[in-house]
């Protein structure tokens, strides 16, 4: 999988949450390295993601975001899917060249940031310009 990068178009208007997203992207890139300790990195990524979701949901609560429940449901579905992938990998390790985990993580994260996270970014912006 090619190296992926955070871009300004992914900014959600919060430096702390942007920093979290950059960190997550860096961790996904780390998973794609040929000499990576896959299980350790994957586990660290799951842990970091859970912390990030907590921080993001706390932010959404603080700004009274009306879409918090459905946003939280998406986070929960992702956490379940990723836990499943980790369990599958532990049972039957994938080939080194198998990029299905990194591909899934990147595809999900990118569309989640660009579509779902952008909704609360736009909502915050609109609220401040009223
Ligand atoms: Fe999110």
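^ structure tokens above, recovered residues below v
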């Amino acid at each position: 999988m090619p190296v992926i990068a955070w871009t300004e178009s992914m900014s959600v208007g919060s430096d702390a949450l942007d920093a979290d997203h950059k960190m997550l992207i860096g961790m996904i890139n780390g998973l794609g390295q040929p000499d990576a300790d896959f299980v350790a990195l994957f586990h660290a990524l799951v842990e970091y993601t859970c912390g990030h979701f907590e921080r993001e949901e706390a932010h959404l609560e603080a700004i009274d975001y009306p879409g918090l429940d459905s946003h939280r449901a998406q986070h929960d579905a992702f956490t379940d899917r990723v836990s499943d992938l980790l369990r599958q990998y532990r049972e039957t390790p994938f080939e080194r060249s198998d990029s299905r985990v990194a591909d899934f993580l990147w595809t999900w994260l990118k569309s989640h940031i660009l579509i779902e996270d952008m909704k609360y970014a736009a909502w915050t912006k609109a609220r401040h310009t009223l």
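The chain has a mean pLDDT of 89.
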